[in-house]
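Researcher: Please translate sequence to structure tokens.
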Amino acid sequence: MHKIVQPKVFYFGTPVVLISTINPDGSPNLAPMSSAWWVNQSCMLGMSYQSQTVQNLIREKSCVLNLPSAQLVNHVDRLALTTGKEDIPMYKATMGYTYEPNKFECAGLTAIPADLVQAPLVQECPIQLEAQVEQISTFSETGTIAAIELRMIRVHVEESILLHPDQDYIDPEKWHPLIMDYCEFFGLGAKLQPSRLAEPFMAQYHSKG
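Model: Translation complete:
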């Protein structure tokens, strides 16, 4: 039996993304988020305009989207309730956020140079996506949420999660993304069953190769 409810937030969970950007002083910033979705070579993020990450994206027009595996959950959780913004927004201050200028050190993660953008890659993340900002729009009626469209310009993937070493396709049974669902961390369970979409999708993929 279904019940009509009025939830305060519509947030059903997506993979966690560690966004690395460059601060005004040239230092790296690293922020966890999970309001992201992809279509083809593009990605859409939803974040607060007051965050340091969004301000960095507006200024620098580029970033790296690092996708952590489920095994990195403790590292990601170390960044919870931290902000790279020294002047902490009131809504974050009331939640207990603290200013943390050294996000990589705080998380116990390693920053390594990217190829095409200034922001660093997170070495430990199996997937690292260098991206450029295409446009930033206001998402909410209050004007506090930014909808950020990104275009992927270079993709780094750990070889161990590829379907075959000589193919650019990630094996879904080897890739175990960290999932955020209503502010709780989850990993993927075992595959339930094959999808009928898999065979035609893979055929189309190989035809383009």
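Researcher: Any highlights?
Model: Helices lie at 52-60, 73-77, 90-95, 103-107, 198-208.
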